[in-house]
Amino acid sequence: MTANGGIRNNKEFWQQWNNLQPDSLSKSNMYRIKELGLSPKIDNQWIKAFPEHVNYKGETLIHHHVDFGRYAIPVPSSTHVGSGGIWHTK
């Protein structure tokens, strides 16, 4: 857990995400999560659920803690670069 009560563990985050949004993760992405311990990639199934991510196809999804809090959302890796990127602006 983070200091603010969010899920820090990548695998745990994606397992919980799958419980909430099962149609967003393809079989290959579930394999990446469950068997390899990796984050999913933006693929056609993800884009069906989140068409706004079409320009990020093939990128790895990162779980981003909103305002460094307990709630996290998946974002394309190119938009979440260290403490920069659009998700960490002041």
TrEMBL record:
Record domain Tox-HNH-HHH: where: 3-88
Highest taxon of the lineage: Bacteria
InterPro entries: Tox-HNH-HHH_dom
Pfam family membership, one: Tox-HNH-HHH
Keywords: Hydrolase
GO MF assignments: hydrolase activity
Protein name, per record: Hydrolase
